[in-house]
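#onboarding

Welcome to the new folks! Below is a worked example of what a typical request in this channel looks like: someone posts a single protein sequence, and someone else replies with the predicted structure as tokens. Don't worry about understanding the tokens yet, we'll cover that in week two.

Example request:
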Amino acid sequence: MQKGKRIEAILLDLGNVVIDWDIDRILETIGASDPEKKLLREELFGHQDWIDLDHGNKAESVVLDEVCQRTSLSNEVLEKAFLAAKTTLDTIPDTIELMRDIKAAGIRLYCLSNMSVETYEFIKDRSFFGLFDGILISGVEGVMKPQREIFQLALNRFELDAETTLFIDDSEANISAAGDLRIESIRFRRSHDCYSSIRSRLFENETASAKF
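Example response:
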């Protein structure tokens, strides 16, 4: 990867970057039947309600009631799904290692994640949050990626220069939105090549293949 200006700060996504987000695993964890799996995919995780949760527009209890009313899903199944959506958010070890190396290099590290208030409250005491110099959660702020406003909010709140900030996220839409503000980005994939690309961009003296 071609070197640009020295990166002084990183905006890092959480889901499928720092922590797992796997709907298949959630559905298997709760032992949902095939019809229940279909409804949960379409009427919860793939529904506008889930976006509203991340946006901070609706509380989890409200969404649960609304899904119960419009589908045949039981309150019990929905409660299990909401809980499993939190308990299956396991950390990704290679990313945690990268975060530690970023901090050791003196690069500031900030969290920029689309996440509901309830999910953040559930996981906020995990040790990896201590590696961040600041945290911005969409559900708390009432604005979410890929809206321009959330990137501008992060730049202003954390006093960042867009041209020396690197954004790492797994969504192409989010990457594109960051680019509109002249924020350099790397689209994250859980692969050796991706970790190597990030390291190559950040650490001048480390070869891309040295380690994950």
